[in-house]
Amino acid sequence: MANEPTAAELNGAQKAAVLIVGLGTEISAKVMKELNEAEIERLTIEVANLRDIPPKLEEQVVKEVSQLIMAQEYINQGGVEYAKNLLENALGKSKALEILKRLEGSLKASGFAKIKNIDPKQLVNFIQNEHPQTISLILTQLSHQQAAQVLSDLSPELQAEVAYRMATMEKIAPEIISELEGLLEGQFEMIGTRDLSISGGTKMVAEILNLMESSTEKAILESIEGEKPELAAEIKNLMFVFEDIVLLDDRSVQRVLKDIETKDVAISLKAASEEVKSKIYANVSERVADMIREEIEFMGPMRLSDVEAAQQRIVETIRRLQDEGQIIIAGRGGKEELVV
Q1: By the 8 A CB rule, do 255 and 229 touch?
Q2: What is the torsional sign of CA 106, 111, 112, 115?
Q3: Which of 125-129, 145-149, 244-248 has the lowest mean pLDDT?
Q4: CATH 1.10.220.30, the chain: domain bounds
Q5: Does CATH place domain 240-323 in 3.40.30.10?
Protein backbone atom coordinates (compact mmCIF):
# COMPACT_ATOMS: atom_id res chain seq x y z
CA MET A 1 0.00 0.00 0.00
CA ALA A 2 1.44 3.38 -1.07
CA ASN A 3 2.29 5.91 1.60
CA GLU A 4 -0.33 8.58 2.05
CA PRO A 5 0.81 12.14 1.15
CA THR A 6 1.43 14.68 3.89
CA ALA A 7 0.72 18.41 3.98
CA ALA A 8 4.47 19.08 3.80
CA GLU A 9 4.58 17.46 0.34
CA LEU A 10 1.87 19.74 -1.12
CA ASN A 11 2.36 23.17 -2.63
CA GLY A 12 0.22 26.15 -1.64
CA ALA A 13 -2.35 25.68 -4.41
CA GLN A 14 -2.79 22.00 -3.56
CA LYS A 15 -3.29 22.80 0.12
CA ALA A 16 -5.88 25.42 -0.83
CA ALA A 17 -7.71 22.82 -2.92
CA VAL A 18 -7.75 20.35 -0.03
CA LEU A 19 -9.05 23.08 2.28
CA ILE A 20 -11.78 24.12 -0.18
CA VAL A 21 -13.03 20.54 -0.45
CA GLY A 22 -12.90 20.12 3.31
CA LEU A 23 -14.90 23.30 3.96
CA GLY A 24 -17.91 22.08 2.04
CA THR A 25 -19.84 23.65 -0.83
CA GLU A 26 -21.57 26.53 0.97
CA ILE A 27 -18.52 27.94 2.77
CA SER A 28 -16.22 27.27 -0.21
CA ALA A 29 -18.52 29.32 -2.46
CA LYS A 30 -18.16 32.30 -0.12
CA VAL A 31 -14.39 31.92 -0.12
CA MET A 32 -14.22 31.72 -3.91
CA LYS A 33 -16.14 34.99 -4.23
CA GLU A 34 -13.22 36.78 -2.57
CA LEU A 35 -10.71 35.54 -5.19
CA ASN A 36 -9.85 37.05 -8.57
CA GLU A 37 -10.44 35.17 -11.84
CA ALA A 38 -6.88 33.86 -12.13
CA GLU A 39 -6.94 32.53 -8.55
CA ILE A 40 -10.34 30.89 -9.07
CA GLU A 41 -9.16 29.24 -12.30
CA ARG A 42 -6.01 27.83 -10.69
CA LEU A 43 -7.87 26.64 -7.60
CA THR A 44 -10.59 25.02 -9.67
CA ILE A 45 -7.99 23.07 -11.66
CA GLU A 46 -6.33 21.88 -8.45
CA VAL A 47 -9.67 20.77 -7.00
CA ALA A 48 -10.47 18.91 -10.22
CA ASN A 49 -7.13 17.11 -10.00
CA LEU A 50 -7.75 15.90 -6.46
CA ARG A 51 -8.57 12.27 -5.92
CA ASP A 52 -9.49 10.73 -2.57
CA ILE A 53 -8.24 12.93 0.26
CA PRO A 54 -7.08 10.95 3.30
CA PRO A 55 -8.67 12.27 6.51
CA LYS A 56 -5.21 12.68 8.05
CA LEU A 57 -4.08 14.93 5.18
CA GLU A 58 -7.19 17.08 5.45
CA GLU A 59 -6.62 17.38 9.19
CA GLN A 60 -3.02 18.48 8.64
CA VAL A 61 -4.00 21.16 6.13
CA VAL A 62 -6.83 22.51 8.29
CA LYS A 63 -4.49 22.60 11.30
CA GLU A 64 -1.85 24.47 9.32
CA VAL A 65 -4.35 27.05 8.09
CA SER A 66 -5.80 27.53 11.58
CA GLN A 67 -2.29 28.19 12.91
CA LEU A 68 -1.70 30.83 10.24
CA ILE A 69 -5.02 32.48 11.07
CA MET A 70 -4.18 32.41 14.76
CA ALA A 71 -0.79 34.01 14.05
CA GLN A 72 -2.43 36.72 11.97
CA GLU A 73 -4.89 37.49 14.75
CA TYR A 74 -2.03 37.83 17.22
CA ILE A 75 -0.24 40.21 14.84
CA ASN A 76 -3.39 42.32 14.47
CA GLN A 77 -3.71 42.50 18.26
CA GLY A 78 -0.19 43.53 19.15
CA GLY A 79 2.27 43.31 16.29
CA VAL A 80 4.85 40.78 15.17
CA GLU A 81 6.81 40.55 18.42
CA TYR A 82 3.62 40.03 20.43
CA ALA A 83 2.55 37.27 18.02
CA LYS A 84 5.98 35.65 18.18
CA ASN A 85 5.88 35.41 22.00
CA LEU A 86 2.37 33.94 22.07
CA LEU A 87 3.12 31.43 19.33
CA GLU A 88 6.33 30.31 21.02
CA ASN A 89 4.42 29.70 24.25
CA ALA A 90 1.69 27.79 22.42
CA LEU A 91 3.61 25.89 19.75
CA GLY A 92 7.30 26.16 20.56
CA LYS A 93 10.02 28.38 19.12
CA SER A 94 10.67 26.35 15.96
CA LYS A 95 7.00 26.16 14.93
CA ALA A 96 6.44 29.83 15.75
CA LEU A 97 9.31 30.91 13.48
CA GLU A 98 8.05 28.62 10.71
CA ILE A 99 4.56 30.17 10.82
CA LEU A 100 5.83 33.75 10.95
CA LYS A 101 8.14 33.09 8.02
CA ARG A 102 5.15 32.02 5.92
CA LEU A 103 3.44 35.31 6.76
CA GLU A 104 6.56 37.36 6.11
CA GLY A 105 5.65 38.34 2.55
CA SER A 106 2.24 39.66 3.47
CA LEU A 107 3.56 41.47 6.54
CA LYS A 108 5.50 43.79 4.23
CA ALA A 109 2.19 45.31 3.22
CA SER A 110 1.57 46.63 6.71
CA GLY A 111 1.69 50.30 5.75
CA PHE A 112 -1.39 49.92 3.58
CA ALA A 113 -3.09 47.51 5.98
CA LYS A 114 -3.53 50.02 8.77
CA ILE A 115 -5.40 52.64 6.71
CA LYS A 116 -8.48 50.42 6.29
CA ASN A 117 -9.16 50.75 10.02
CA ILE A 118 -8.78 54.54 10.17
CA ASP A 119 -11.77 56.84 10.41
CA PRO A 120 -12.22 58.47 6.96
CA LYS A 121 -12.18 62.00 8.43
CA GLN A 122 -8.84 61.32 10.14
CA LEU A 123 -7.49 59.87 6.92
CA VAL A 124 -8.52 63.03 5.07
CA ASN A 125 -6.43 65.11 7.48
CA PHE A 126 -3.46 62.88 6.78
CA ILE A 127 -3.64 62.82 2.97
CA GLN A 128 -5.26 66.12 1.93
CA ASN A 129 -1.90 67.88 1.50
CA GLU A 130 -0.38 65.00 -0.47
CA HIS A 131 -0.02 65.03 -4.25
CA PRO A 132 -3.28 64.04 -6.03
CA GLN A 133 -1.54 61.01 -7.53
CA THR A 134 -0.55 59.84 -4.04
CA ILE A 135 -4.09 60.34 -2.77
CA SER A 136 -5.56 58.43 -5.71
CA LEU A 137 -3.17 55.55 -5.10
CA ILE A 138 -4.13 55.42 -1.41
CA LEU A 139 -7.84 55.42 -2.26
CA THR A 140 -7.40 52.35 -4.47
CA GLN A 141 -6.44 50.46 -1.30
CA LEU A 142 -9.68 51.32 0.53
CA SER A 143 -13.13 49.79 0.36
CA HIS A 144 -15.42 51.65 -2.04
CA GLN A 145 -17.50 52.94 0.86
CA GLN A 146 -14.45 54.29 2.72
CA ALA A 147 -12.99 55.77 -0.47
CA ALA A 148 -16.30 57.52 -1.18
CA GLN A 149 -16.33 59.06 2.31
CA VAL A 150 -12.73 60.26 1.97
CA LEU A 151 -13.32 61.68 -1.51
CA SER A 152 -16.44 63.50 -0.29
CA ASP A 153 -14.43 65.31 2.41
CA LEU A 154 -11.72 66.58 0.05
CA SER A 155 -12.00 70.03 -1.54
CA PRO A 156 -14.06 70.14 -4.78
CA GLU A 157 -10.95 70.87 -6.88
CA LEU A 158 -9.07 67.98 -5.31
CA GLN A 159 -12.06 65.65 -5.67
CA ALA A 160 -12.11 66.05 -9.43
CA GLU A 161 -8.34 65.78 -9.80
CA VAL A 162 -8.14 62.62 -7.68
CA ALA A 163 -11.10 61.00 -9.44
CA TYR A 164 -9.53 61.77 -12.82
CA ARG A 165 -6.20 60.24 -11.81
CA MET A 166 -7.92 57.13 -10.42
CA ALA A 167 -9.89 56.70 -13.64
CA THR A 168 -6.74 56.89 -15.78
CA MET A 169 -4.54 54.87 -13.40
CA GLU A 170 -2.90 51.76 -14.77
CA LYS A 171 -0.09 49.63 -13.37
CA ILE A 172 2.08 51.35 -10.78
CA ALA A 173 5.86 50.92 -10.74
CA PRO A 174 7.05 48.80 -7.76
CA GLU A 175 9.42 51.55 -6.60
CA ILE A 176 6.52 54.00 -6.30
CA ILE A 177 4.54 51.48 -4.26
CA SER A 178 7.56 50.95 -2.00
CA GLU A 179 7.97 54.70 -1.54
CA LEU A 180 4.33 55.14 -0.55
CA GLU A 181 4.54 52.08 1.68
CA GLY A 182 7.43 53.73 3.51
CA LEU A 183 5.42 56.92 3.92
CA LEU A 184 2.50 55.06 5.46
CA GLU A 185 4.73 52.97 7.72
CA GLY A 186 6.22 56.20 9.04
CA GLN A 187 2.76 57.33 10.14
CA PHE A 188 1.01 54.19 11.29
CA GLU A 189 1.83 51.03 13.23
CA MET A 190 2.88 48.01 11.25
CA ILE A 191 -0.23 45.89 11.71
CA GLY A 192 -2.12 43.40 9.54
CA THR A 193 -1.82 42.46 5.91
CA ARG A 194 -3.14 43.75 2.63
CA ASP A 195 -2.90 42.72 -1.00
CA LEU A 196 -0.88 45.34 -2.82
CA SER A 197 -2.40 44.81 -6.23
CA ILE A 198 -2.90 48.38 -7.41
CA SER A 199 -5.77 48.93 -9.78
CA GLY A 200 -7.72 52.09 -10.34
CA GLY A 201 -9.61 52.70 -13.56
CA THR A 202 -13.02 53.93 -14.56
CA LYS A 203 -14.89 50.99 -13.00
CA MET A 204 -13.57 51.74 -9.53
CA VAL A 205 -14.32 55.48 -9.91
CA ALA A 206 -17.87 54.64 -11.03
CA GLU A 207 -18.41 52.37 -8.02
CA ILE A 208 -17.10 55.05 -5.65
CA LEU A 209 -19.20 57.83 -7.21
CA ASN A 210 -22.28 55.62 -6.91
CA LEU A 211 -21.86 55.85 -3.14
CA MET A 212 -21.55 59.64 -3.01
CA GLU A 213 -24.19 62.35 -2.83
CA SER A 214 -25.59 63.33 -6.22
CA SER A 215 -24.35 66.93 -6.01
CA THR A 216 -20.76 65.84 -5.33
CA GLU A 217 -20.94 63.14 -7.99
CA LYS A 218 -22.21 65.65 -10.54
CA ALA A 219 -19.49 68.21 -9.74
CA ILE A 220 -16.73 65.61 -10.13
CA LEU A 221 -18.12 64.31 -13.42
CA GLU A 222 -18.55 67.81 -14.83
CA SER A 223 -14.93 68.64 -14.01
CA ILE A 224 -13.66 65.43 -15.66
CA GLU A 225 -15.96 66.05 -18.63
CA GLY A 226 -14.43 69.49 -19.14
CA GLU A 227 -10.98 67.93 -19.42
CA LYS A 228 -11.77 64.59 -21.08
CA PRO A 229 -15.40 64.11 -22.23
CA GLU A 230 -14.92 60.51 -23.40
CA LEU A 231 -13.56 59.49 -19.99
CA ALA A 232 -16.54 61.09 -18.22
CA ALA A 233 -18.90 59.28 -20.58
CA GLU A 234 -17.24 55.94 -19.84
CA ILE A 235 -17.54 56.51 -16.09
CA LYS A 236 -21.20 57.50 -16.44
CA ASN A 237 -22.00 54.36 -18.39
CA LEU A 238 -20.34 52.19 -15.75
CA MET A 239 -22.24 53.90 -12.95
CA PHE A 240 -25.53 52.43 -14.10
CA VAL A 241 -25.79 49.20 -16.07
CA PHE A 242 -28.94 47.72 -17.61
CA GLU A 243 -29.51 45.19 -14.83
CA ASP A 244 -29.60 48.09 -12.35
CA ILE A 245 -33.11 48.90 -13.59
CA VAL A 246 -34.27 46.92 -10.55
CA LEU A 247 -32.91 49.81 -8.42
CA LEU A 248 -35.51 52.19 -9.87
CA ASP A 249 -38.81 52.66 -8.12
CA ASP A 250 -41.96 51.84 -10.10
CA ARG A 251 -42.73 55.47 -10.85
CA SER A 252 -39.23 55.98 -12.32
CA VAL A 253 -39.50 52.83 -14.46
CA GLN A 254 -42.80 54.06 -15.85
CA ARG A 255 -41.22 57.44 -16.68
CA VAL A 256 -38.29 55.78 -18.45
CA LEU A 257 -40.54 53.54 -20.53
CA LYS A 258 -42.36 56.61 -21.91
CA ASP A 259 -39.15 57.58 -23.73
CA ILE A 260 -38.29 54.07 -24.99
CA GLU A 261 -39.64 52.40 -28.12
CA THR A 262 -41.43 49.13 -27.46
CA LYS A 263 -39.12 47.38 -29.92
CA ASP A 264 -36.05 48.48 -27.94
CA VAL A 265 -37.64 47.22 -24.74
CA ALA A 266 -38.30 43.84 -26.34
CA ILE A 267 -34.76 43.56 -27.77
CA SER A 268 -33.18 44.56 -24.46
CA LEU A 269 -35.13 41.88 -22.57
CA LYS A 270 -33.80 39.10 -24.84
CA ALA A 271 -30.75 38.78 -22.59
CA ALA A 272 -32.16 40.21 -19.36
CA SER A 273 -32.54 38.48 -16.01
CA GLU A 274 -35.96 37.34 -14.83
CA GLU A 275 -35.79 40.03 -12.15
CA VAL A 276 -35.46 42.79 -14.75
CA LYS A 277 -38.21 41.29 -16.90
CA SER A 278 -40.53 41.16 -13.91
CA LYS A 279 -39.72 44.79 -13.09
CA ILE A 280 -40.61 45.91 -16.62
CA TYR A 281 -43.77 43.82 -16.94
CA ALA A 282 -44.99 45.05 -13.55
CA ASN A 283 -44.87 48.64 -14.79
CA VAL A 284 -46.78 48.33 -18.06
CA SER A 285 -50.34 47.35 -18.78
CA GLU A 286 -51.17 43.70 -19.35
CA ARG A 287 -51.79 44.47 -23.04
CA VAL A 288 -48.36 46.09 -23.48
CA ALA A 289 -46.68 43.26 -21.56
CA ASP A 290 -48.26 40.74 -23.95
CA MET A 291 -47.10 42.83 -26.92
CA ILE A 292 -43.52 42.81 -25.62
CA ARG A 293 -43.59 39.05 -25.03
CA GLU A 294 -44.94 38.46 -28.55
CA GLU A 295 -42.29 40.76 -30.02
CA ILE A 296 -39.55 38.81 -28.22
CA GLU A 297 -40.96 35.52 -29.46
CA PHE A 298 -41.23 36.64 -33.10
CA MET A 299 -37.70 38.10 -33.13
CA GLY A 300 -36.01 34.74 -32.90
CA PRO A 301 -32.23 34.53 -32.35
CA MET A 302 -30.38 37.85 -32.26
CA ARG A 303 -26.78 38.94 -32.09
CA LEU A 304 -25.71 39.77 -28.56
CA SER A 305 -24.19 43.04 -29.80
CA ASP A 306 -27.64 44.18 -31.01
CA VAL A 307 -29.20 43.33 -27.65
CA GLU A 308 -26.46 45.16 -25.76
CA ALA A 309 -26.88 48.20 -28.03
CA ALA A 310 -30.59 48.37 -27.17
CA GLN A 311 -29.79 48.00 -23.48
CA GLN A 312 -27.24 50.81 -23.74
CA ARG A 313 -29.81 53.13 -25.34
CA ILE A 314 -32.09 52.51 -22.37
CA VAL A 315 -29.23 53.15 -19.93
CA GLU A 316 -28.45 56.45 -21.67
CA THR A 317 -32.11 57.44 -21.35
CA ILE A 318 -32.07 56.61 -17.65
CA ARG A 319 -28.91 58.67 -17.11
CA ARG A 320 -30.45 61.62 -18.99
CA LEU A 321 -33.66 61.51 -16.96
CA GLN A 322 -31.65 61.27 -13.75
CA ASP A 323 -29.54 64.30 -14.74
CA GLU A 324 -32.77 66.19 -15.41
CA GLY A 325 -34.05 65.25 -11.96
CA GLN A 326 -37.04 63.35 -13.33
CA ILE A 327 -36.15 59.99 -11.79
CA ILE A 328 -34.23 58.66 -8.77
CA ILE A 329 -31.80 55.76 -8.73
CA ALA A 330 -31.98 54.03 -5.36
CA GLY A 331 -28.99 52.64 -3.49
CA ARG A 332 -26.88 55.80 -3.65
CA GLY A 333 -24.94 57.23 -0.71
CA GLY A 334 -25.91 60.43 1.07
CA LYS A 335 -29.35 61.76 1.88
CA GLU A 336 -32.45 60.56 0.07
CA GLU A 337 -33.87 62.89 -2.55
CA LEU A 338 -37.50 63.21 -3.52
CA VAL A 339 -38.66 64.45 -6.90
CA VAL A 340 -42.32 65.34 -7.13
Answers
A1: no
A2: positive
A3: 125-129
A4: 112-223, 240-323
A5: no
